[in-house]
């Protein structure tokens, strides 16, 4: 590493789900983009993710839609069921209906698999792992970025895709820790042999509900049915750990959800490794950009994950931000960032609010305003 200052047109900070999308889309639009990620490498952590048609359209533009479709599971429905009786509270059609009505597939997939496809789609010499941003200096004609490894980059524009503890957010709005939401989620990939041995049917995408909106969201993460995953939502008194997650156990799952419907019991019985994650929150921010700095995704609108749209909003942000910069060119960044915020704020805030309330699709409702939306053609402003 060197102390010399290198120059880039656009620096994306964070190669997470939103940052990787921004890097791909901006590069596809002809901008010169470098992405800086603190992690030395990404690993396949045990977790799944839903990707709605609203974002599969963006993946089509990036050129990875077919690859993700081939890996992921294609649920025909999102079911909501009573956790004790198994009664159906809602059946939201997806599958062929979704493709027809919303313009793309709805998939559930292992987030590590999806992320790897996103990263592979980027020019590898422009993704810089092991680069933790530690200082930002806004200057007249650029932003000086200093990384922990000593590298210094002067960027024309900086996209803060650095997640809930964003340094860019801190630079714009001052230090403020996110608020613990009072909820945790347990995440587990279950043992498939034990699951099959139960002889029960496990639906491709189902949310089990108990009182006070406690729940288990369970779904397949591979199209061949070889992997099944669940994530819970459980209110707790507090979160006293310093780490981003802690180990949980089948016993803890049994204590919370034991004695429920037989399919839920089979999920608990098939649980071997399970982790527990705190859900953090922030109120909607009143500033998404300043000067040459702009934010997207969890950096500016983190949410509890109960609508399965947090990453989708980050990726939608990336698509709209790219379109705005295409309209103005990098020299018109002030106008582009204002247009971006004006286009995104209401939708992101609405999704954030519903997600935090944890009501999405519990009862029959029309999800078209989320899934049929096309961030590549929606009106700007
Ligand atoms: C349990 C759970 C389930 C979820 N399920 C879904 C779902 O089904 N569907 C959905 O759409 N969303 C889901 N989400 C939400 C989703 O995970 C987030 O909204 C999404 O990851 C946000 O993307 P992002 O790019 O903004 O941030 P992140 O994905 O968090 O990426 C931020 C990146 O920035 C890097 N970084 C941070 N600081 C620095 C620094 N100083 N220097 C360099 N790099 C840095 C980080 O290492 C990271 O790679 C879920 C979330 C949780 C917790």
TrEMBL record:
Family: Belongs to the 6-hydroxynicotinate 3-monooxygenase family.
Pfam family, one: FAD_binding_3
Annotated keywords: Aromatic hydrocarbons catabolism, FAD, Flavoprotein, Monooxygenase, NAD, Oxidoreductase, Plasmid, Signal
Lineage, opening ranks: Bacteria, Pseudomonadati, Pseudomonadota, Alphaproteobacteria, Hyphomicrobiales
Cofactor: FAD
A Gene Ontology molecular function term of the record: FAD binding
Sections of the chain in a coiled coil: none
Subunit text: Monomer.
Catalytic activity: 6-hydroxynicotinate + NADH + O2 + 2 H(+) = 2,5-dihydroxypyridine + CO2 + NAD(+) + H2O
Annotated FAD-binding domain residues: 8-352
UniProt-listed Enzyme Commission number(s): 1.14.13.114
The keyword Signal belongs to this UniProt entry's keyword annotation: yes
GO biological process: nicotinate catabolic process
Gene3D superfamilies: FAD/NAD(P)-binding domain (3.50.50.60)
Protein name: 6-hydroxynicotinate 3-monooxygenase
